[in-house]
TrEMBL record:
It comes from Desulfobacula toluolica (strain DSM 7467 / Tol2). Its EC number is 2.3.2.15. Residues 6-249 form the Peptidase C83 domain. Pfam families: Phytochelatin. This is glutathione gamma-glutamylcysteinyltransferase. PROSITE patterns: PCS. Keywords: Cadmium. GO terms for biological process: phytochelatin biosynthetic process; response to metal ion.
Length: 251
């Protein structure tokens, strides 16, 4: 972890300060809009459940745990198996052993690796659903791409799935994105569930599990895809992080 402390983090902070001084990125015009009004139930059981079971990560690398536990609790609640007592994040880490998830959440990580790359997130989500006996129709891990040809199909399908989440209420989306693309923070891999989508304006609501983000926030669809398709920083590739993307669960 000394590499992150002494090399990666200082570089990320210098990138952050450059954007701040140059008024680029989220310090310019393209940034998230915070939703400070209280959430009101919509009748969409999955969407309402995500807001009800939303939790914040317990340390800087545990965004995957907070995101998955909110999804698992939402689905257990929907299927009538929650019994009034939501699972906590430690419950998940003790029960789901895929990819050395618990070890990755420790201070030193698993073989020096903390957090979950996109494909590993997909594996952990799938195992979590199986461990807790949650039935679902399909699960897909989708890697985003900046390639103009490849991205066209990925974006069209993503938009259709966002509309499906909002209007049909039969699916969930966990996003894996560059947090610095949305809010004034470091450009690091981050994970949070999608909490809403407006088909008319194209705005996506993120239920960010970062404790520093006190409210949900909205970003345009194009900015949302930009965050998903981030190549992250080349420094992160040695830790298994390529492009971001999302995990799609149809129930």
């Amino acid at each position: 972890m000394s590499l992150f402390r002494w090399v990666i983090r200082p570089y990320l902070y210098s990138q952050y300060m450059f954007q701040k001084l140059a008024r680029k990125g989220t310090f310019g015009g393209d940034q998230a809009i915070y939703v400070k009004t209280a959430y009101k139930n919509t009748g969409n059981g999955l969407k309402d459940g995500l807001f009800r079971h939303h939790v914040k990560q317990f340390h800087e690398a545990s965004c995957s745990v907070a995101s998955v536990v909110s999804v698992v609790n939402t689905l257990l609640d929907r299927q009538g198996h929650l019994n009034g007592t939501p699972l906590c994040q430690q419950d998940l880490l003790e029960s789901v052993r895929t990819a050395h998830w618990k070890e990755r959440m420790s201070d030193n990580g698993y073989n020096g690796r903390r957090g979950l790359p996109l494909q590993t997130l997909g594996q952990v989500v799938e195992t979590s659903l199986k461990v807790y006996g949650i039935s679902y129709q399909s699960l897909e891990t989708v890697q985003a791409s900046r390639d103009p040809i490849k991205s066209r199909k990925i974006k069209d399908r993503l938009r259709a799935r966002l509309e499906q989440f909002e209007t049909a209420g039969n699916c969930l989306i966990i996003s894996h994105f560059d947090q610095g693309c949305f809010v004034r923070d470091l450009h690091i891999p981050h994970i949070s569930p999608v909490g809403g989508f407006d088909p008319e304006s194209g705005t996506v609501t993120l239920l960010d599990v970062d404790p520093s983000q006190e409210c949900p926030y909205q970003v345009s669809f194009d900015l949302f895809y930009k965050g998903l398709s981030s190549n992250y920083n080349p420094i992160f590739r040695r830790f298994g992080y390529g492009e971001g993307g999302y995990v799609f669960i149809r129930v």
